[in-house]
Amino acid sequence: MFRILIDEEKCNCCGLCVDVCPNEILIKRKYGCAPLITEGECFGCENCIVVCETGALSIVGEGAEFSRDVDPLID
Q: What is the pTM of this model?
């Protein structure tokens, strides 16, 4: 299992990553810019990374130290 990390300073709010995520790990926020990261299981397809025009996304393997906490689903 993998985790998605978002650099919110690089995110341009385009939503392309949300559109291409097959497991709906990334979802649009009601308010704000960068997508929310759900508790779903990311299998590391990297679709989100490929479409991200600003390089705001990265994927790391399970057990790594994460610099960003998982956001709650409701803003």
A: 0.75
